[in-house]
Each structure stands twice: as structure tokens, then as C-alpha cells.
Automatic annotation (TrEMBL):
Pfam families in the record: DUF6789
Source organism: Acidithiobacillus ferrooxidans (Thiobacillus ferrooxidans)
Ranges that cross the membrane: 12-36, 56-81, 93-117, 123-144
Matching InterPro entries: DUF6789 (IPR046739)
Keyword vocabulary terms for this entry: Membrane, Transmembrane, Transmembrane helix
The protein, known as: DUF1440 domain-containing protein
Superkingdom of the organism of origin: Bacteria
Amino acid sequence: MNTQCNTLGKGMVAGFVATIVLSLLMIAKSIMGFMPDLNVITMLSSMAHAYMGVPQIMLIGWMLHFAIGTVVWGILFVLLIPHLPGTNTVVKGLILGTIAWLAMMIVVMPMVGAGLFGWEFGMMAPVATWMLHLSYGAVLGYVYGRLTGACRVGAKPADHVAT
């Protein structure tokens, strides 16, 4: 395999870039005072403390946030992309973002005591978090498409990305 076309590595790069964008949106949400009780970094930090016994500090939450977005979802995207519906990597990224959102709503939210779909935070919690995950997925798909487009036989990088 050509090392320039290492799709797992490119999936992680795309996941990292998408996580940066997601993080900036989360910070903007916080600065605007929108849903202040819904703080994913605090939630991850609390979960790590409760389940792994690590100190409950924001740095741990941020590290987990980046590990999940970069490694877990970046690699899962590469593994799932052949099976996801859609005609380009952005659409496939939007679908993966929705899958990630569902995982958060069904697994993470109940684990932190926020209830299924985060209803303890109110009706806007599922909507706001879905919008954030769609942003993550769109960036993930776009960056991955740009990074891998030239690796496909006879393709130009722009062939796999929505314009």
C-alpha cells in the first residue's frame, strides 16, 4: 500500500481537524451562554473520574474529547465509509456525525445522569448537540475527501467532495 494513501492516518487527521472545528463551536456556544449546563468537556471529565478514578480536571475532558473525535470516530469513518449511504464523503460524514450523536444521546447522556437524549438539559439539548455533530461530520467528510481523493484510481481530490 502506498504510504501516501494511508486512509486510517488520513481518517485520524480528518477527525482531528473536525474535532478542532467542533471544539471552537462548543467554545462559542459557551461564550454566548447558550445551554451552559450542557458542557461535554465537564461531562467527559466527570465520567473519567467516576469510571477510571482519574482526577476530575478539564484537561482530562479535553484529552478524551480529542481522542474520541480523532482516533475513535476518525478510524470508524474510514472503516464504515464503504457501507455508508451517500455519493460523496461530506454526505457520508453527515451520516457518521448523526451516528456519533446517537451514541452520545443513548450511551453518554444516560451515563452522566442526563437521561436518554439528554432530556434533563431540556428539549434543546438533542437539537443543539445534533447540530454540533453534523458540523463535525461535514468537516470530517470534507477533509477526508480532500486527503484521499488523489489516492483513488484516476481521481482528482475534488471528485469525492461536494462542491
